[in-house]
Amino acid sequence: MNENEIGRIVVDTSLAIHRELGPGLLESVYEAVLAQALSQRELTASRQVAVPIRYPGLQFEEAFRADIIVDDKVILEIKSVESLRNVHKKQLLTYLRLTGMKLGFVLNFGEGLMKDGIVRIVNGLPDD
Fold first, then answer.
1. Could you give the C-alpha distances from 92 to 38, 66, 79, 89, 126, in angstroms and in order?
2. Of 32, 39, 49, 29, nearest in space to 101 by CA
3. 74-88 pLDDT tens trace
4. How many beta carbons lie within 10 A of that of residue 126, not counting itself?
5. Is 108 left (phi over 0), alpha (psi -120 to 50) or beta?
6. Domain boundaries of the chain, sorted by first residue
7. Any bridge partners for residue 59, and if so which?
8. How many CA atoms lie within 13 A of 45 on its CB side?
9. Sign of CA dihedral 41, 44, 50, 55
10. Whole-number Å distance between alpha carbons of 74 and 1
11. How far apart are CA 70 and CA 77, in angstroms?
12. Cβ(16)–Cβ(80) under 8 Å?
């Protein structure tokens, strides 16, 4: 399964979860529910994955933690805030660059409408 196919499943699953649970819960709740729901759709959803950063002469083993990484191809950054800010998008783009992954989503379950809380970020992903 390629990144875009995974992305479609992530979006569909996020919309369904938001429809069922609504906004206002903690990020950790949405993270746990989403990871479980993706696993039920036969995807590997790893939570709180430590990601190292390499800098000339240095390596930091746990420079950051990705909320969810799906099938080692797509990073999901989970939020539950009133509205997203540019820093959330920049954060995910940096994660993509550091890991070499090509697709990620910021998923803000705090929005009244989930479709308004989904931001797709690409890092050199070709169109399919």
1. 20, 9, 12, 5, 18
2. 49
3. 999 999 999 889 999
4. 9
5. beta
6. 3-122
7. 54
8. 22
9. negative
10. 11
11. 11
12. no
Distance CA 107, CA 115 (A): 9
Both tokens assigned to 66? 């990705």
Dump pLDDT digits (tens) for 102-127. Answer: 999 999 999 999 999 999 999 987 76
> What's the Cα-to-Cα distance from 76 to each of 48, 55, 56, 57, 119, rounded to whole Å?
10, 24, 27, 29, 10
Q: How high does pLDDT run on average in the chain?
A: 93
What is the rounded distance in angstroms from the CA atom of residue 12 to the CA atom of residue 105? 13
In 3D, which of 68, 73, 77, 69 has the Cα closest to residue 5? 73
Cross-strand pairs, 69: 46, 75
Closest CA to 48 of 34, 120, 58: 34
How many angstroms separate the CA atoms of 76 and 107, rounded?
7
Query: What one-letter code names the amino acid at 4?
Result: N
**pTM higher than 0.90, yes or no?**
yes
